[in-house]
Amino acid sequence: MATFQKILVPTDFSECSYAASDMAAKLAVQFGASVTLLHVDEPPAWQGFVIPELVVSLPNEANTSLHEFVQTRTRRALEHLTTQLRNAGVTQVEERLEVGEPDAVILRVAEQLRCDLIVIGTHGRKGFERLMIGSVAERVVRQSSCPVLTVQVPNQEKKADSANTGGT
Asked: Which neighbouring-strand residues pair with 129?
């Protein structure tokens, strides 16, 4: 039976990445593993066209650069996930915030940390949407040197259709 000591959980703060975090927590508690939460900020498409020190002014926020604002929100979201993991019984949680192409960064961090498992959420896109947007999870599965567990949140429409038709 495989055991896991280091679990990497990439997150984009979507519903499916929260489901992946929940699954990773169960595995980490079961195996006594550490969890590294990783959020990858993609370089914005407008980078180079907008001044990085662009100031935003939002209610209850001091004037700050757009970059600082996004970083602060991301750190808060990572801290929230860390708290959830600790409340679920995970004793070793690390947070990482990186910039780059998500799949490449995920694979690099997994190698650097010598992770035993990557638990990643997948949106379950199909057809044209998948063709146009692609799938970070799919690229990670194809290229990872360690096992990858993908977690998908069931589509609410499918659930409703199954309930209405009596199907599964």
From this structure: none
Q: CA 103, CA 59: separation in Å to the nearest integer?
A: 34
Measured between alpha carbons, how far is 66 from 62 in angstroms, rounded to an integer? 11
Q: pLDDT tens digits for 12-39? A: 999 999 999 999 999 999 999 999 999 9
What's the predicted TM-score (pTM) here? Answer: 0.80
Task: Provide the b/e sequence for 61-97 (b: ≥16 CB within 10 Å).
Answer: eeebeeebbeeeebeebbeebbebbeebebeebebbe
How far is Cα of residue 166 from the mean position of the Cα atoms in its chain? 34
**What single-letter amino acid sits at 159?**
K
